[in-house]
Design brief:
The chain contains eight helices and no strands. The protein is mainly alpha-helical. Helix 1 runs parallel beside helix 8 and helix 3 packs antiparallel against helix 7. The mean pLDDT is 96.
Length: 163
């Protein structure tokens, strides 16, 4: 269910992040760094989620400042996400497991602070500036946070079953 209010968004974010934290808590560095057939590891997925929260916060800030918003990132189109994510994994290749967890915790706090700092109307009263679609800032925040936390947990559960 997609959140439609600030309270629902905060509750969803807290719930999904808590579940993800409990899931990754016992994951060893060896498990976290083991690559799958597509050259992706649990660590990569966690670091990716942290990065995408940062992207969202940047999109929002750029839109509010009247700057061009680069979706998903400068030099990339939405249909080039595989290429973008591969480049991101390469940039994050030397990041360790503890650093990836720390990055996610920090970005989750940034997201929580963002949500708490905005009114219900600011989050859901209209499209996000610069987004060039009808998604509200709250919907973008949900995609960057709770939705990404759920998909990360699904990936991690599947990977742990195969180890």
């Amino acid at each position: 269910m997609v959140a439609t209010t600030k309270d629902e968004l905060l509750a969803s974010s807290e719930k999904e992040f808590s579940k993800l934290e409990k899931l990754i808590g016992p994951v060893t560095p060896e498990q976290a760094l083991t690559k799958d057939a597509e050259d992706t590891s649990i660590k990569d997925v966690i670091a990716h989620r942290a990065h995408w929260i940062g992207l969202f916060l940047g999109w929002y800030a750029d839109g509010m400042a009247g700057r061009k918003v680069h979706f998903p990132a400068e030099g990339y189109k939405w249909n080039e996400l595989k290429r973008y994510n591969a480049a991101l994994r390469d940039r994050q290749k030397n990041m360790g497991w503890v650093a990836a967890i720390s990055a996610l915790q920090l970005r989750n706090q940034d997201l929580t602070t963002f949500i708490e700092g905005h009114s219900n109307d600011a989050l859901y009263g209209g499209p996000m500036k610069g987004a060039r679609n009808n998604w509200t800032p709250g919907r973008w925040a949900e995609a960057a946070g709770p939705s990404h936390y759920r998909s990360a947990a699904k990936y991690i559960r599947a990977r742990l079953k195969t180890m």
